[in-house]
Design brief:
The chain has 258 residues and is of the alpha/beta class. The protein has a domain of 129 residues: Rossmann fold, CATH 3.40.50.300. Helix content is 39%, strand content 24%. It is built from eleven helices and ten strands. A hairpin with a 2-residue loop joins strand 4 and strand 5. Helix 3 crosses helix 5, helix 3 runs parallel beside helix 6 and helix 6 runs parallel beside helix 7.
Length: 258
């Protein structure tokens, strides 16, 4: 098992408040690791530490063995990790083609250019079409983002992260605000696309326990900034203590049944 991304004894304080306490975890090739836990458990803080947005106050964060503490999203993408940003990078007046092209061009290190120049570039055009078709957006290329459904917007957000050709992709609640029928479609799409695109690991923050149970290879449960459990789904959901501490406090169909 070859580790791609890890934290060793990570702590994060906000003033006097302990948001993460001695968190050690390792993510290897082929894994889809879900991070779960009640509100305020420290999930977003951990994701921000893992993607170099936040510097931990203690411990190490390593990507491919190199320290990435606090390096920021641009450097991180260059090293091979990308994150979908919950639609913050989706501009309503930009078309699907333009949105994906920005990511493709930045990945190719060509810097931002005028769209006319991008449109003239055959390589970029082909790559945009390819990424769009992986996510079922090829018939929406000329549609402005504001006219997409919520599910399509999520796919466009994730497609933009994929366009960076990352080894590791990080999804913070990719299906929030989407109907349960669409959630499975989105997750299926992402997992298939990851395989096709050669993505080696996925980190998922997700509240829907149905999705977590179905798609994770491993689940890391946080409570009050500490790792309560780190195990495969079967061992996770069969432990009454874990279910009471984590699943019972979260939303989703399995949570209600538990
Ligand atoms: N910038 C901040 N300053 C102070 N406290 C924060 C800050 N960000 C998060 N917190 C606190 O840290 C805890 C963990 O937050 P967060 O990582 O967002 O949890 P989660 O994503 O699991 O809901 C919460 O109690 C939250 O109020
Ligand atoms: Mg959060």
């Amino acid at each position: 098992m070859s580790t791609i991304l890890e934290t060793v004894g990570v702590g994060k304080m906000y003033g006097d408040f302990v948001a993460l306490d001695d968190v050690s975890l390792a993510i290897a090739e082929g894994e889809l690791v879900s991070i779960v836990g009640p509100n305020g458990a420290g999930k977003t803080t951990l994701v921000n530490v893992l993607t170099g947005l936040l510097k931990p106050t203690a411990g190490l964060v390593r990507f491919r063995g190199q320290d990435i503490a606090g390096i920021g999203p641009v450097m991180l993408a260059r090293r091979g990790m990308a994150r979908a940003f919950q639609l913050v990078h989706i501009f309503p007046a930009m078309t699907v083609r333009q949105t994906i092209a920005v990511a493709v061009v930045s990945q190719e290190g060509k810097g931002l250019r005028f769209f006319s120049a991008v449109d003239d570039d055959r390589g970029v055009r082909d790559r945009v079409r390819e990424v769009a078709s992986i996510f079922g957006l090829e018939r929406k290329l000329e549609t402005e983002a504001r006219y997409l459904s919520q599910g399509e917007k999520k796919l466009l957000d994730i497609a933009s992260a994929f366009a960076l050709q990352p080894e590791v992709i990080l999804l913070d609640e990719p299906t929030s605000g989407v109907s349960s029928a669409d959630k499975h479609g989105i997750m299926r799409n992402v997992v298939d696309a990851a395989k096709k695109a050669g993505v080696k690991a996925i980190i998922l923050v997700e509240h829907d326990m149905d999705l977590v149970a179905e798609y994770s290879t491993r689940i890391v449960a946080l409570t009050a900034g500490k790792v309560l459990a780190d195990r495969p789904p079967a061992a996770f959901f069969s432990d009454p203590e874990i279910v009471a501490a984590i699943v019972g406090k979260m939303v989703g169909r399995l949570a209600k049944e538990a």
